[in-house]
Q: What sequence folds into this?
């Protein structure tokens, strides 16, 4: 099992490169997928911010990885530019990360992120 620091290192290794992030919201208590967004990003920079607090969507974050770059988010409603060229990955006490082949996942009770290289940007 990986830690947030190992995911951070993987992202640091991919600075300047295109990546894909698949964010899947999970139905509470069932682990079944509710909604998936796909982010295509040319990753420019990565940072970690420690923070506690409640967020509008109900997640409580102990820390977050902040990704800076250009690209777009594909949703059920179409494609949108990444707001302010920043994408945040929230980490809580129950977030678990692991390597699955060429991809890395970070999952908690309500959300799962999968990171991989993007050959399309």
A:
């Amino acid at each position: 099992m990986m830690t947030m620091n190992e995911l951070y290192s993987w992202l640091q290794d991919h600075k300047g490169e295109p990546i894909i992030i698949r964010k899947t919201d999970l139905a509470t208590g069932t682990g079944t997928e509710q909604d998936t967004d796909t982010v295509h990003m040319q990753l420019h920079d990565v940072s970690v911010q420690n923070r506690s607090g409640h967020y509008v969507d109900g997640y409580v974050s102990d820390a977050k990885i902040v990704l800076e770059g250009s690209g777009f988010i594909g949703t059920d409603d179409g494609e949108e530019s990444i707001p302010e060229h920043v994408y945040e990955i929230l980490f809580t006490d129950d977030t678990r990360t692991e390597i699955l082949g060429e991809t890395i996942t970070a999952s908690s009770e309500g959300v799962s992120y999968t990171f991989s290289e993007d050959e399309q940007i």
User: Anything to note?
Assistant: The longest helix spans residues 4-13. The longest strand covers residues 33-50. The chain has a mean pLDDT of 84.
